[in-house]
Each structure stands twice: as structure tokens, then as C-alpha cells.
Design the sequence.
């Protein structure tokens, strides 16, 4: 622009001189005069051309050749401050040449640090993904038995001997299922529905894989199989320290129609709304539990802790008759309306219980009767941070409950903090986005261990959204519609970043720390 600006005045002046000289008449018509004026015009033309060329030479930029010293200093010197950000799309670009009203070296002031970053230009690298919750690290531990030996086709097929109910195979983003047995109610249906939604959420993100799945409550692959050259990998809803079963998100995250339990995301929001309407200090100052007492010894022990004419253990225990609830239209079993006590008790049934996440969401202090099993997220919970540990046998259980309630009522601020930590964990680390991310990372890490190329097994059929929803009515169809992932998947949001595995020292320290906290609570109870 500066070169053009330098040329313009001189050209205008030259053209002006020519325009002024051209109409001048010859004086007296003499030839000498004509020759004189012709010479004058030629001289003016030569002068204009020389001045224009001179101007171009004067403003031409000079680019110095880089010497070795300059190149070396440029490589080792500090990075220059970033220029103004670029914005994709329409609108005024901050990278345009400054207008004539601004000096040539004009630059906008630096952005205050507290402002959010400017949008990335089209085609720029996406921002780094957030790290997944800490409990994702247990994925590495659950798959550790196969880390060195891998997963062979023989090992997968041997897992069928442990009463696997169906086989899941993913090839080129399509789901195929071979059925070997019946699952209770619609556990298998909504588990497979969840896997279908994962494929829709992250199209092309789930690698080819092949696995066996059991939908019963208790893990069955004994730790003795750990010493087998190829232990059988078996997926289910829970695991334990004594078994090798691989925990996977349970069916109820997509709804439990037989018990009128809504899909997790919708129910979690309803529980949050109920929490806002029921201040912790205004809730009943007792421990609450309601459920089926006939599915585990721990629950039968819990019945003895109910208030009676002889002793009040600060517990309010209610047996749930699901048959009668079905007849009454589930009027007395709305989980979003059961956060009415300051304390809620979690106790396992035959195995782990799906009720755990609903109890944690309540803002109440979760009193966790010492569990034997774990689901995929519960190892991310810490005693006295997310829950209060309770002993698991006889009268000792009742005493633990009474001590916890007395302590919490005497220290309401600390008790409320435990409840809030648990509900925050559920809200932030157990939202459906994170559930899908856990599924994705678990399956991807498992697929890396396969020592064969997955293929559709004999007897398997493709499962699609249309085929699995065909013929579904009532709550089954409603819950599927409510949890169907949109065609655009995650809407551009990628999965969180899988954290690294525990070191042996980290794992040992974590287990020791949690055991020490439990022993400390028991020591308080005994004194």
C-alpha cells in the first residue's frame, strides 16, 4: 500500500503537466517553437518516468539475509507474543491491515487473563479433553490379569462355561449378539440398548471386539483362575476383590421398566429438584432404608435395627413388597420422593445393588454397610468423604447406625458436607456423559488386548435400534425413546481422557488409607 501511495502523487503530477501543456498553441506558428515545445514535453515525460522509478526504488523493502548468528538466536530466543486471534466465518477480522487512522505498528492490548479464550479458527486443533474421573483408573486394574498374556479366542469361549447369558461382538461399528440364556426381566435388553447408544454417540470410536456377558448379580470367575495361563474374561454388573469379573454399567442407567424406575439422567435431575425443596436440617433425623429384605443376609440383619418398644437404633426400616407396588401403580416407590431423611442406608442384596447411586444422589449421609462387591464407579468413593462406613453383622450393625446418626446430628455441618460430596460425585462424575465415556474406554482397552480379529460368531444376529425396539410397549418403549442418542452423537464433544493406571505403591497406599479410616470409625464406636 505504501508503494502505491508513493507512486500516485507523482503520476498525478506528471499527468497534470501533460494535460496543461497539450493545449498550448504554437506561437507565431514557427517551427522552432514547435520543436521547443516538443522537446519540453519529451523532457517532462522522461522526468516523470525517472521520478516514478526513483520512488519505487526508495520504498522497496530490504530483507536482510539471515546469518548463522541471527538464525541461532531466533531458535533459542523467547517466543514472540501471539498476535491477535483469528475468527473463522463472517464478521470483521482482527487480522486485517490496520486502517489509515491507526499507526502502522498498531496492535490491540493484551486480553485480560480472566476472560475466556477466543474461539479457535476453523481447522485448528481441538482443545485438550478433560481428564476422566479418578475411578476410571480401575479400568486398568480390572484388565490387569490379561495385560501380559492378552485375550485369546479360546479364553473368550471358555467364559461361556461360567453361565454367560449372551455374547457381544462389534464389527465395523455394528452390534451382533448371540444369546445363550435368559436374563432376569429386561436386563439384557437395556444393557444391549446402552451399547447401541454408545455406538451412536461415538460413531467409529468403538473398535472391533468380542466378549461374554453375564447378567446375574454375583461375580463367579474365581481369583484362582488368575493363575491360569489364559483366565476367561467375563463382563457383568459387579466384581469383587476375590473374583476376576469385569464390572460394566448396569441396565438401570437406561431405565428399569418392571419397577417403574426411570432412566438415570432423568431420575437424577428429579432427585436434585427434590433435594432443593428439602433442606437437610428439616429432614427426619434418622437413618432410612426401604427395599426387599429377602435377597441377602445383610438385609435380614438390618431388619433387627428397626425401632421397637425396647430400643431405638435411630433407624427407620421399611420392607418393600414389589408385587403390591405393581398393583398400586408404584405410588409408594418414587425414588425422587425418598430423600426425606438425613441419613440413608445402603446394604447389598444377593450382590451389589442398583440402589447405591440413588442413595448417593440424595444429599443425605449415605450409611454404607460394609460391601463385599463393587460396581464400576463405587471404588471412587472414600469413607468419611462420600459416605459413613457401617459394620455388617448383627447388633454391631445397629450400633454403627446409631453412632453415625448421633454423630451427624451433633455435627450437622460435617454431616452435610459428606452428603454434599456424595451428591456432587453423582452429579459430576456419574452423569450419563461419564457413563458412556467409561463404557468407551473399558471396551477400547479390552479390545487392545485381543489376540485375534473379531468376527461375527455362529448364531449371532445383528442388533439395531429398530430391531430391539420392535414390539416394545409401555415403559420399555418410553424409556428407549427417552434415552436414544441423537444422530449427531455427542454433539462434537469427545470423550474424557483416560487417566494412567495406579502404580503398585499408589494402589497399596489407597487401600491402606481407606482401611485406616474404617478402623478409626470403628474405634470411635467402641469408645
Sequence:
Amino acid at each position: 500500500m505504501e508503494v502505491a501511495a508513493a507512486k500516485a502523487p507523482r503520476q498525478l503530477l506528471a499527468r497534470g503537466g501533460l494535460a496543461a501543456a497539450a493545449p498550448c498553441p504554437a506561437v507565431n506558428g514557427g517551427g522552432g517553437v514547435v520543436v521547443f515545445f516538443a522537446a519540453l514535453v519529451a523532457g517532462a515525460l522522461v522526468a516523470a518516468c525517472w521520478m516514478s522509478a526513483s520512488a519505487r526504488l526508495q520504498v522497496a523493502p530490504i530483507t536482510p539475509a539471515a546469518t548463522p548468528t541471527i538464525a541461532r538466536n531466533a531458535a533459542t530466543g523467547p517466543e514472540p507474543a501471539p498476535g491477535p486471534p483469528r475468527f473463522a466465518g463472517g464478521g470483521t477480522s482482527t487480522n486485517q491491515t490496520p486502517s489509515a487512522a491507526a499507526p502502522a505498528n498498531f496492535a490491540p492490548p493484551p486480553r485480560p487473563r480472566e476472560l475466556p479464550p477466543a474461539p479457535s479458527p476453523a481447522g485448528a486443533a481441538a482443545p485438550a479433553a478433560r481428564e476422566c474421573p479418578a475411578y476410571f483408573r480401575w479400568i486398568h486394574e480390572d484388565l490387569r490379569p490379561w495385560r501380559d498374556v492378552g485375550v485369546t479366542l479360546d479364553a473368550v469361549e471358555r467364559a461361556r462355561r461360567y453361565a454367560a447369558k449372551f455374547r457381544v461382538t462389534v464389527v465395523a461399528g455394528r452390534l451382533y449378539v448371540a444369546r445363550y440364556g435368559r436374563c432376569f426381566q429386561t436386563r439384557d435388553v437395556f444393557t444391549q440398548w446402552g451399547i447401541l447408544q454408545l455406538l451412536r454417540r461415538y460413531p467409529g470410536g468403538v473398535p472391533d471386539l468380542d466378549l461374554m456377558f453375564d447378567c446375574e448379580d454375583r461375580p463367579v470367575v474365581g481369583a484362582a483362575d488368575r493363575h491360569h495361563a489364559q483366565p476367561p474374561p467375563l463382563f457383568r454388573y459387579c466384581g469383587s476383590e476375590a473374583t476376576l469379573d469385569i464390572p460394566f454399567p448396569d441396565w438401570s442407567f437406561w431405565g428399569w421398566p418392571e419397577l417403574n424406575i426411570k432412566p438415570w439422567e432423568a431420575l437424577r435431575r428429579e432427585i436434585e429438584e427434590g433435594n432443593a425443596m428439602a433442606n437437610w436440617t428439616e429432614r427426619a433425623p434418622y437413618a432410612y432404608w426401604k427395599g426387599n429384605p429377602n435377597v441377602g443376609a445383610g438385609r435380614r440383619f438390618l431388619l433387627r435395627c428397626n425401632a421397637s418398644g425396647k430400643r431405638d437404633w435411630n433407624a427407620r426400616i421399611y420392607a418393600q413388597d414389589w408385587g403390591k407396588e405393581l398393583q398400586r401403580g408404584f405410588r409408594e416407590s418414587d425414588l425422587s420422593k425418598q430423600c426425606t431423611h438425613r441419613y440413608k442406608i445402603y446394604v447389598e442384596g444377593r450382590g451389589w445393588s442398583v440402589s447405591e447411586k440413588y442413595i448417593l444422589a440424595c444429599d443425605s449421609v449415605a450409611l454404607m454397610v460394609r460391601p463385599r462387591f463393587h460396581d464400576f464407579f463405587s471404588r471412587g468413593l472414600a469413607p468419611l468423604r462420600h459416605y459413613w462406613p457401617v459394620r455388617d453383622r448383627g447388633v454391631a450393625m445397629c450400633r454403627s447406625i446409631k453412632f453415625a446418626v448421633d454423630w451427624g446430628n451433633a455435627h450437622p455441618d460435617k454431616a452435610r458436607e459428606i452428603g454434599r460430596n456424595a451428591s456432587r460425585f453423582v452429579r459430576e462424575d456419574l452423569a450419563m456423559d461419564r457413563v458412556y465415556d467409561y463404557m468407551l474406554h473399558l471396551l477400547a482397552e479390552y479390545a487392545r488386548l485381543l489376540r485375534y480379529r473379531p468376527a461375527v460368531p455362529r448364531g449371532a444376529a445383528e442388533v439395531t435400534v429398530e430391531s430391539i425396539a420392535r414390539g416394545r410397549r409401555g415403559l420399555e418403549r418410553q424409556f428407549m425413546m427417552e434415552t436414544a442418542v441423537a444422530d449427531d452423537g455427542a454433539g462434537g464433544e469427545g470423550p474424557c481422557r483416560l487417566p494412567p493406571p495406579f502404580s503398585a505403591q499408589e494402589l497399596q497406599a489407597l487401600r491402606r488409607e481407606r482401611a485406616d479410616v474404617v478402623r478409626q470409625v470403628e474405634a470411635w464406636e467402641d469408645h
